[in-house]
Design brief:
Distance between the termini: 18 Å
Largest sheet: 5 strands, parallel
Shape: globular
Number of strands: 11
Oligomer: single chain
Structural class: alpha/beta
Length: 315
Amino acid sequence: MVPSPVKSACKQLLFKAKIYRFSLLLERFFVLPYHMITDKPNGFYPETSTSHFERQIAFLVKNYHVMSLDEIMERSQKGESLRGCVAITFDDGFKDNFEKAYPILKKYQVPATIFVTTSYVESGIAPWFIKLRFMFMKTDKTYLELAADKRITAPLRTREEKFAASEKVMRYFKDCPDEQRLRLLDELGIRLAVNDFRELDNLMLSWDEIREMSEQGISFGAHTVNHPILTRIPLAVAEEEIQQSKKTIEEKVGKQVSSFAYPFGKEAQYSPEMFNILRKLHFNCAVTTIIGSNNHHTEAFALKRWYPWELSQIL
């Protein structure tokens, strides 16, 4: 949703007056969600520009207590103050986390947690949701008609229409079982006449890059093996996805994995039954993509993620 000019102007006024500093007195903490960091965002992927990312990190270092997610959870468990605490996280394990974000994190000497989908690292194959966005970004077709359980149609004449169509198809695909989703993804490629994905080669982190960052204080959390929507698969399969991703990272990195990120992470995409699985597997916390801040009373296996409001004012 595009903010109104009046709302944006009010926020700018509040920011310049440094009213946001009063929020630092509240007993809460933020977990920031990032995905890809790039010099030239394309508008289709979940990207943050490198320059925006650095300005945000510089602002956070100056105004907040930036610490690892594990350290924040330790403080919470001990009942220690959480005022002004912020943890930086990345989902999926994209190579630009190493190439673009990592040098900035080192420069400002701040920790972060990267949630790795292990099959993407092992294979180097781009996630299905990135392939989906790529198809819409690259297609020359002006209209989509996709035969699924329900017929999906959308105009594709402009870049804006292509993005809107990708959102529409993404919402539908998220509700599909994995096998059906992969079949429909192939069909989508045929409909959009996009079948060359070489541009997406080398998109994911390597284990050598992960190990290097781990040695320099970057933490790694589990994000499943194949990025399924956990509530769309049997609970036993969901447990295997979680357990195997944790085991693989621990074997490759040589350090314990204590945090988890739910794929997609909305309320319908995880369940309280998974909290027990995570406890059994010795995780300390899990993050969602539900917008908000957290405090001492927030469920440790349903942490919200979002940005302090004033970060949007410094770009």
